[in-house]
Every structure is written in structure tokens, then in C-alpha cells.
Write a structure and sequence with these properties.
Length: 824
């Protein structure tokens, strides 16, 4: 097997124009135009709309290459395209090789007859996706009028990430191009078609069952060789005679080192290579990194209905995390480094799970490798979201092949926890009036597509991974997909329904796979797309970076319920982040307190694909919003929480680790100047994988009448020394008479980090540390200062981006400190 990459230097032009531009592949029309300064930043002000119009045109990519002699000698040469976006016509030496129509597929074409020794040319024309969806006409009885929020009508007619046509957080820039690798692969004797690695776990031993599909074209004798390298480097090799077709081999692993998600143990990984050899000549080989574990969804019946919980190595865990969307509007710009930054940010915020939402793309191999390494369970939607599809024969064949490609590519990963048919389409047919009024034929097509065609295709290739028809669902067949007592739920009454945060507590979902709350990104991010005069949330520019038309009104409504009106634009941005973090915290803590009944809380959404106001906790530039810091605390393996009903405050501890934890809790009622009015101390052991109420106190004696200018401070310390402080107040923040806390910070420098020690004269709420020019990920941020003792925050030097600091003094001078009292 011989490979020749065709990545690298190409040329691109608008079709039939003569201006060829240098293009780097993987790359796209947008990435090429930007690199050649032919288009202005599509994210700047309202440039998005001009950028969108570029995709009414067709484009062409072209390159020549000298075919390597030892590749050309092969009987068969395939052109392999790992991502063509989307309506492509491929010409090799001016002869049409094929046309493609699905960006999610891996395309392989035999092209030897079109190649010649020496120099060759390849051209790929990309037709306008906008023209395609606008001119698409479904059959008479399959008229579709539903348009997903923020998207262009007809986005579902083409197998291209839906959100490239816009979403309620995304720009309408349906880019085109060669978005993943492209190469030539030559072979004469045969090749490995497929390797399926199945794990059988039994009484502390694992059998790795390797099914290798071979295409052997010559009558030679071949061996299949397997090499397994254990996490600590011990290599074992195995060999069998290879046959044409399916080969099966079992490697028994005694004393397996099991893979665990983040927070429950290590992520040991085994390396498996499968090679086909004739004597010492390797005909073909494939490499896999695998983690040994059992992972499924448990749906045991109980007094409320049926649970919905990830069960890893026999242990049911509470899923903590968020929903993942495409990381950029220009997909070829998503590098491994950026993915790693994001995934590391998840793990640092104590996630154990990510849901890959169905309106984007199937993530790259790098993404899954990183989730294996960092220990994030992946809930993988198939790429369908909030739409009605015209299930023609051609569409059906296309999505079957797409599913096969992706299941084969992803199924061996330790992190893969679940396949899910789609986002919100079953529930859409059940409760969204604008979707429900489509024809019965389209509704029947839904069942065919998502409960027959796709699950059968997945199951034929991956019997080990749990399949779920839709999110949310109760198991399919329109059997009350929004049932709170079975399956997963998307809950949007706080936010879209404008109910108060308290409403989270009226629900005991079995697994909340979506719930969210918007905020604006930080001022530094806003500055990247605005001029000074745009910095008003109702300006045209700010509104066009807000894709949910009702959202600014919602943020202002919740603001009015909770906070005093901020004095300026910058403080308004900050307060929306505090609101967002507080809302999500309210929900997560409630569901974690009800561990057992509820077994997962994934908030909407982790990330952004451009600079925008959205539900994300990390913005497009990787800046952690207040919510992400709060997530680090409310998703902590051992987390303390307070919950207030009237004047009664309860303290709880949530232990999501595999060991019992001895904890100490000190709950005090304090005045704004830190004077302790009363104090309770508790010592308790919180059993592994459980939530426990520590105690409660009724404070009515202290706060009778109008004297509610006090707060409850709870300091939770576990046996490992992890400490967290929670605060509860008895009035909305807008009625809390905060004094100016006069925060001072003192900075010292260690070899690999700066230590920032912050003190205040009175209660300081949501203390934000930031810099004007640089960015940093602090060990904590948006925290309270509840006493005279300093709060210490670390900033690792490797977590500083931007200009950086000469020394501790320099950092101290550049540190910007804000707390709630500064906003009005
Ligand atoms: C959810 C998602 C997305 C959307 C989000 C916010 O239900 O599935 O479609 O972006 O709501 O409205």
C-alpha cells in the first residue's frame, strides 16, 4: 500500500474567472480568499452577509503533481477524499472522475486509468450550495415549509452541516472546499478493507475480537500480524494466515487496565496495529488506539419510570458536560491544537461527557483521540437537527454510506458512549406546531429514516454501542418523547419560556441533555467585530452577532429580575455572564442533588463557531465566560451546594467519585462586613457516587422584618483538601445593599505560575480577574470574597495568552478587577 498526500499547494478561482489564487489544502473558498486578502474578515461588523453571497457562485480548485513512481506502478490507484464540501466534480487530467454530494463522507475512486506517469493534474469544481437548496423541489405531497431557527430555507436538502447555512448562534456562511485530507492510495496485491475491534469483558479478562476484512487480489501467501502495546509499553505480537474476506482473531488480555472517564480513574490506552504481510513485505497496515472498558446506557425501571444513565465498567455515573457545536465557521481552520485547547478546558471544568450536536459535522479523528486521552464520554448525534427531510431513494443511499463511513471511523474509540439519531426531530414532530403540520408521508419518512434505516446501518457495523433514536426521546415511535420520567430531556422553559431559575427545581429529569442560557462574550471579543460606535446591544452590528431574535429581550428580562441596571455596555456584558452562570448552576446543582433519579446534566452549549452572543461557556476565541469557571465548581467531583427555600438554607454535598469522602462543612450567617451572626459545623462521610444533605437551618430569627442584608457562607472541605465556598442570599441581588468591597490583589511569582491573593473589606460578589491585552485561565474566577482572609488564585504561565508579563509587579499593575458592586 502506497500513499501520496495531495494536501498542500493548490490554486483556486471563481469558476471561469482567470484570477487563480494560491490555496492551501485542506482549505476552503473562505480560507483561500482570506489568505489572499480578497475578502474582508467575514466576522467583522455585518460582513457576514457579503460573505454569504459568495456562495451563490461556483469555485474551482486545481493542482498538478508528479506521481511517485512506486505509486504509479500499482495496478490500482484510488483517490481518497476525506472531506469534500459538498457538490463537487472531480477531474483528473481533464476527465470527469466523479461527482460527490455529501461533505460527511469519505470518497474513494479508482483512478488509475486516468493517471499517467510523471505530471498529472487534478481539478475539483464546487457548485453553489445556495443555488442547490434554493432550486430544490420536493415531490408534491412532500412540501416542506419548516425552517430551522436562524438557518436558510432548504438547508436539509444537502448533506452539508446544517449550521453552515446559519443557526440561532451561527453565521450564514455556507463555505465550500476540500475541508479534510486528500490523497492517492495505490495497491496491487490487495488491501485491508475494514477492521472491527470488539471487546468482550468477562470476569476481569478482556477478549479483543478483531475482525479484519481483506481484499486479496493475488494468490500469494499472506499473514495477518497483530501487535498490541499495553499502556506501560509491553508489546505482544500474534500472527495468523490471512484469507480473502473476513478474518477473525481474538487476543486475550489478562489483568486489563480499564479506561475510565475523567474523575473516576485513569485513561490507559492500548495500541493495536494490524498488518498484512507477505514474508517481510507489509502489504497494508492499520493502527488503532483503544481503551478497554464496557460502556452503555442503563435504563432500569424504578419508582419514577426508567433511568437513563451511562454505565462504565459496571458503574453508573452522573454525566457532567455540555453540547458541542462546530468550532469554527471555516471548518478547515479547526486545528488539532484548537480542539485540544477546548477539550482540555472541558476536563479542567470537571466534565466527563460531551454531546456532539447533530446540526454540525462528525468530528475529526483528532477529536476522538483527544476525548480518549482526556477521558470524555462522547454522545454522538448523527448529523440531523431540527428539520424535515425529503427521504428520496438517492438521499437514503447517500445517508447510509455516510453512516457507514463514520461508524467505521469512530466505533473503536473508548470515548464513544452512544449513537443518537438526531437532534430534536422526534420531539419536533410531537410538539412543534410548525413541524407537526407536514404531510403524513413525511412523518412516515421520519420513522423510516431514524428508526429503521439509520439504526440498522449503525447496528450492522457497531453492535457494542448503545443507539438512541433522537434527543430528546423516550425510546422512539413518538411515544411521548418529552416524558420527564424516561429517556433524555431538553428543557428550555428557563430561557426560551422565560420562567425563573427556580423552575429548574420543579423537574427531575432522568438525563437533561440540553438546557441553556445566553450571555454576551467579553468586551475583548466584542471589540474584534465592532467599532466603538457599535457597542450598544441594540446596534445593527451587535444584533447581527445575536442570531436568536428574542434573546436580547430575554437577557434584559432576567437582568431586571435579578440585578441592578448596569451603568454601561461593558458592565452589561459582564452581568449577562453572571446571569448565565447562575442559571445553569441552579439547574445542575438541583439535578446533582437528585443523583440517582437524574443521571446527567449537559448544558447548551460548550463553544462558539464565531464571535457572537450565545449560550456558550467558552467563546470563539477560547475565552472562558463566567459560566465555564462556575462549571468547574458545580461539576467538581466533590461539590458543595446550598439551596434556599424562604428563610431555610440546606447544605448538600455531591460526591461523584468512586470513594467515600470525609467532609467538613462550616455554614455561617454573616453581615456584609463579615461579622458572624451564627455558625454550624458538620463532619460527615459522603459515600461514593452519592449526594447527601449535610444539614439545614432556618434563619428567620436573624432576618425578621427588613434586615435581609446578610448572607450565608458555606465552606466545604473534603479529605483531599479541596475547598469550596458557596454563598446564599435572601433577596435578589438587586436589593442587596453591597458596599464597595475595595478589593486589593497582591501577586507573587513562582517558577511556573503567578499567585494572586485577593482581599476585600466587605462581601465581594462575582469577582472577575482579567487583563486588557492578555488572556489567562485562572484557577478560579467570578468568585466571592466572603471574609477577611485572602482568596488565592493561581495563574499558570502556560495559561497566559497575549503579550504576557515581565514579572509579578507587572502582572499586578495590569490586573483588572471587577465585582458586582462595580457594575452600577
Ligand atoms: C437547542 C439546540 C439548538 C439550538 C438551541 C438554542 O434545542 O438543539 O438547535 O441552537 O436549542 O435555541
Amino acid at each position: 500500500m502506497k500513499h501520496q498526500k495531495l494536501n498542500g499547494n493548490w490554486k483556486m478561482r471563481e469558476l471561469k474567472e482567470n484570477n487563480w489564487l494560491d490555496a492551501n489544502v485542506p482549505g476552503s473558498v473562505m480560507s483561500t480568499l482570506l489568505a489572499n486578502d480578497k475578502v474582508s474578515d467575514p466576522f467583522w461588523r455585518t460582513n457576514e452577509y457579503e460573505a454569504r453571497e459568495l456562495f451563490r457562485k461556483d469555485y474551482e480548485f486545481e493542482r498538478t503533481f508528479i506521481i511517485e513512481e512506486d505509486l504509479y506502478e500499482n495496478d490500482h490507484i484510488e483517490l481518497v477524499c476525506y472531506g469534500l464540501d459538498t457538490l463537487a466534480e472531480i477531474y483528473v487530467n481533464d476527465i470527469l472522475l466523479s461527482k460527490t454530494n455529501n461533505m460527511h463522507r469519505t470518497w474513494r475512486f479508482e483512478c488509475k486509468p486516468l493517471l499517467q506517469s510523471g505530471e498529472n493534474q487534478i481539478r475539483i469544481i464546487f457548485r453553489s450550495p445556495i443555488n442547490y437548496i434554493e432550486s430544490y423541489v420536493p415531490e408534491e405531497d412532500k412540501k416542506i415549509h419548516f425552517v430551522s431557527s436562524g438557518s436558510m430555507k432548504g438547508n436539509q436538502y444537502i448533506r452539508k452541516a446544517h449550521c453552515m447555512f446559519g443557526w440561532d448562534w451561527g453565521a450564514q456562511i455556507p463555505d465550500a472546499g476540500i475541508w479534510r485530507d486528500i490523497e492517492l492510495v495505490g495497491y496491487t496485491d490487495g488491501k485491508i478493507e475494514d477492521v472491527n475491534i470488539i471487546q468482550h469483558h468477562h470476569e476481569g479478562e478482556v477478549n479483543i475480537d478483531i475482525r479484519t476484512e481483506l481484499q486479496l487480489l493475488k494468490d500469494n501467501h499472506y499473514n495477518l500480524e497483530y501487535t498490541l502495546i499495553s499502556p506501560n509499553g509491553i508489546t505482544s505480537s500474534y500472527c495468523q494466515t490471512a484469507i480473502n474476506g473476513c478474518n477473525s482473531y481474538i487476543i486475550a488480555v489478562e489483568h486489563p487496565e480499564l479506561w475510565w472517564p475523567n474523575g473516576y480513574g485513569e485513561q490507559p490506552l492500548y495500541h493495536l496495529s494490524v498488518s498484512v504481510k507477505n514474508n517481510d513485505n507489509i502489504m497494508d497496515s492499520k493502527e488503532y488506539t483503544i481503551g478497554l472498558r464496557t460502556l452503555t446506557i442503563s435504563q432500569e425501571k424504578d419508582q419514577w419510570g426508567s433511568e437513563f444513565a451511562f454505565k462504565i465498567n459496571g458503574v453508573k455515573i452522573f454525566a457532567k458536560g455540555a453540547d458541542y457545536i462546530p468550532e469554527d465557521t471555516i471548518y478547515s481552520n479547526i486545528t488539532k491544537e484548537r480542539i485540544e485547547y477546548l477539550i482540555e478546558s472541558c476536563v479542567r471544568a470537571n466534565y466527563n461527557c460531551l454531546r456532539v450536536w447533530g446540526g454540525g459535522y462528525y468530528p475529526s479523528d483528532d477529536f476522538f483521540d483527544l476525548c480518549d486521552r482526556y477521558g470524555l464520554i462522547v454522545w454522538q448525534d448523527l448529523m440531523y437537527a431540527c428539520n424535515v427531510y425529503d427521504l428520496t431513494k438517492e438521499f437514503e443511499e447517500n445517508i447510509i454510506e455516510e453512516t457507514k463511513d463514520n461508524v467505521r471511523r469512530i466505533r473503536h474509540h473508548a470515548c464513544l458512549g452512544l449513537w443518537c439519531g438526531n437532534n430534536e426531530i422526534e420531539s419536533g414532530w410531537y410538539i412543534w406546531p410548525s413541524l407537526m403540520d407536514h404531510s403524513e408521508k413525511l412523518k412516515a419518512d421520519y420513522i423510516k429514516q431514524f428508526e429503521y434505516v439509520l439504526p440498522r446501518t449503525v447496528e450492522a457495523l457497531d453492535k457494542s454501542t448503545f443507539f438512541w433514536p433522537s434527543s430528546p426521546s423516550s425510546g422512539g415511535c413518538f411515544d411521548n418523547p418529552v416524558d420527564e420520567n424516561r429517556g433524555d430531556t431538553h428543557y428550555w422553559d428557563v430561557w426560551h419560556g422565560q420562567l425563573p431559575f427556580e423552575d429548574y427545581r420543579n423537574h427531575y429529569f432522568r438525563f437533561c441533555s440540553e438546557f441553556g442560557f445566553q450571555s454576551f462574550p467579553s468586551i475583548k471579543t466584542v471589540k474584534t467585530f465592532t467599532e466603538e460606535s457599535d457597542r450598544n446591544i441594540f446596534s445593527e452590528v451587535m444584533e447581527s452577532h445575536q442570531k436568536n431574535t428574542a434573546a436580547n429581550g430575554k437577557m434584559l428580562y432576567y437582568l431586571s429580575e435579578n440585578f441592578l441596571y448596569p451603568k454601561d455596555f461593558e458592565n452589561l456584558l459582564y452581568v449577562t455572564q453572571i446571569l448565565q452562570g447562575s442559571a445553569i448552576k441552579y439547574g445542575v446543582e438541583h439535578w446533582r442533588r437528585n443523583r440517582g433519579r437524574c443521571m446527567g446534566a449537559l448544558y447548551w452549549q460548550l463553544n462558539d463557531s464565531w464571535p457572537v452572543a450565545s449560550w456558550a461557556s467558552i467563546d470563539y476565541y477560547g475565552r472562558w465566560k463566567a459560566l465555564h469557571y462556575m462549571a468547574k465548581r458545580f461539576y467538581a467531583p466533590v461539590a458543595g451546594t446550598l439551596s434556599r427555600t424562604g428563610e431555610v438554607v440546606e447544605a448538600h454535598i455531591l460526591n461523584e467519585t468512586l470513594s467515600d469522602k470525609k467532609c467538613n462543612v462550616e455554614v455561617s450567617l454573616k453581615t456584609m462586613d463579615f461579622e458572624v451572626l451564627c455558625k454550624d459545623t458538620y463532619e460527615l462521610v459522603v459515600p461514593a457516587l452519592s449526594a447527601r444533605k449535610v444539614g439545614e437551618r432556618n434563619y428567620s430569627d436573624f432576618i425578621t422584618g427588613i434586615n435581609k442584608q446578610v448572607y450565608v457562607e458555606a465552606v466545604f472541605t473534603d479529605e483531599d483538601g479541596y475547598q469550596s465556598t458557596e454563598v446564599e442570599i435572601f433577596v435578589p441581588f438587586k436589593y442587596l445593599e453591597l458596599k464597595k468591597p475595595e478589593i486589593t490583589c497582591h501577586v507573587t511569582e513562582n517558577e511556573d505560575c503567578y499567585v494572586i491573593s485577593c482581599q476585600a473589606k466587605s462581601l465581594a460578589c462575582f469577582v472577575e480577574l482579567d487583563f486588557e491585552e492578555s488572556d489567562g485561565i485562572f484557577s478560579d474566577n467570578y468568585f466571592y470574597i466572603t471574609g477577611k482572609e485572602p482568596v488565592t488564585v493561581e495563574l499558570r504561565k502556560t495559561d497566559i495568552r497575549g503579550e504576557g508579563f515581565a514579572d509579578a509587579r507587572d502582572l499586578e499593575q495590569k490586573l483588572q478587577i471587577r465585582s458586582l458592586r462595580d457594575t452600577y
